[in-house]
Amino acid sequence: MPRPNLYYEERTPSPLERVWHEFNRNPLARSALYIIILIMFLCVFGPLLTPYGPNEQILDAISLPPAWSEAGDIRFLLGTDELGRDMVTRIIYGARYTFGYPFLVVIASAAIGISLGAIAAMTVGVKSSTLKHLLDVLMSIPSLLLALIIIAITGPGLSNALLAIGLVLIPQFLHVTRNAIHDERQKPYVTASRLNGVSDLYLLAMVFFPNIVKVLVIQLTIGLSIAILDIAALGFLRLGAQSPTPEWGSMLAQSLEVAYISPWVMALPGIALFLTLVSVNLVGETLRIAIQKQLER
Fold this sequence. Notes:
Elements: H1 15-25, H2 27-49, H3 87-121, H4 126-139, H5 143-154, H6 158-185, H7 188-195, H8 200-236, H9 248-255, H10 263-296
């Protein structure tokens, strides 16, 4: 009989492999992940794939329906709008304005908010209490309303809308991080770490953050959904991206006048926005479940 290999040990899956296993278990979540990857790819390389410019007008192709329609043209797979602009091109360029820029804003807001929240959580006293009440007031106001107030001061435009959304998201990340770390501080293992003489920096990096990563992932998902929806809403209200910028919310607003004549002009950016929001939330929920299982192990 062959002798057993005493040195063989079953390889433990890495955290990344466990996350991928969680996506494999759920075909819907896996599809959502592919959609997000595709959108990210289009944000970076999309302009290299389109034969037309986002505002280029083809005068002999005005209000053409999608290519599968009898009146469609194979050159324009998803048709054209009332000005003869290719809808595929505008949807692809719109991914950068509706997803790409809000994604960068969320990352910047998260970095600032989490840092400030960690500092606030490690302090006690009047300053911490005052900050808590101020955050409670800010959190009680809808994010879109706060963004509208900021835009009323700074003026309409895509850059001002992105700035407004970033400023609105910072208190949310700050509030969530502060509360999560504050809850962790009450647990026995933190007291044991302090008795061992560890520094506050070590507590934050090696004790608190690994245990609140699930909360932060949830907040990142929520923040990205808020940013995408708000930038589209502001564009729809003509307070964000201005015509002819191919931002999906702005495209929806521009299509209202021709919705009955060219319904695809309204449907396409609406579908793109819907799929993006649903995919972001599905991916975020799957990541949360994977992280939760990792922590339980």
